[in-house]
Amino acid sequence: MDRDLLLSLNDEELSGLCRLEFCRGTGNGGQKRNKSSTAARVVLLEDERFAASDCSERSQHRNRANALWKLRRLIAFEVRCAPPVPPPRISCGVTHAEYPLNLAHLLDVLDGCSYDHKAAAALCGVTPSAFLKLLRRDDARWEKVNTSREVLGLHKLICN
């Protein structure tokens, strides 16, 4: 399936493409956590390498939604598309529904520019410093970018 389409699906549509598993949560939480199956795990049927789970809430419904969010983010981190297309919205909050798709497009642009943030910024139509600040808003994204840069023999990015 097309990555961008997959990242654009709502929770119900994405759930239909996944195997859903529910079990008891582990760790602190007392009797409620130990006796009810509120932990959720979602596995993408098309590619079982993509799986996510969550047991942070007392609600099975919320844990399923959180697991789906983590699955979208994992897909955005791992699946690259070429040629890179700048995101329609350069700035998108981490909790926004379009964030996983935005994240995927930003990483596509960086990958297409061999993780040269200045070239990627130019492609997105922003200054290099604005681009760095945008990347820095999400710790996981920042770590992914720096890890990818290290693999290519580039120095880590620093943003004050």
Task: Map the helices and strands.
Blueprint: H1 3-8, H2 11-15, E1 18-23, H3 30-35, E2 39-44, E3 51-54, H4 60-78, H5 99-112, H6 117-124, H7 128-136, H8 139-151
Antiparallel strand pairs: 1-2, 2-3
Helix pairs in contact: 4-5, 5-6, 6-7
Features:
160 residues, mainly alpha, Double Stranded RNA Binding Domain, 2 domains, three-stranded antiparallel sheet, 3 strands, 50% helix, 10% strand
Write up this protein.
It is built from eight helices and three strands, in the order H-H-E-H-E-E-H-H-H-H-H. Strand 2 (39-44) and strand 3 (51-54) form a beta hairpin. The protein folds into two domains: 3-78, Double Stranded RNA Binding Domain (2-Layer Sandwich); 82-160, no CATH class. Helices cover 50% and strands 10% of the residues. The chain has a three-stranded antiparallel β-sheet with strand order 1-2-3. It has 160 residues and is mainly α. The chain is elongated and about 50 Å long.
